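Work through what follows:
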Amino acid sequence: MNWLDSDDRPWGRWEEYLNEDGYRVKRIIVHPGQRLSLQKHEHRREYWVIAAGTGVFTLDDSEKSISTGDSLYIPVHGVHRVQNTGDEPLIIIETQLGRCEEDDIIRLEDDYGRS
């Protein structure tokens, strides 16, 4: 696959496919039983499409089960997290809009000791 950037994380991996002024597209792969940090962003909103797998999505004070084909919206400042509850990788196609930098992650809780 051809990606611009990628990074292995304790929960899985992300791969960047587009990074233009004002928007960015990534594929996020969450390993079974793992979850992202509880986080928010100051400068971007995100749209997620669940390409494969099952999990639980948290946004602010609500949780919902998610599976292949679901789409999710995360507003600026929306406190969010996703957890893979299945036996296969959870694959998310993420489109970011706004200032799309990796340093725009404010971690509120993290299973892996990151701040």
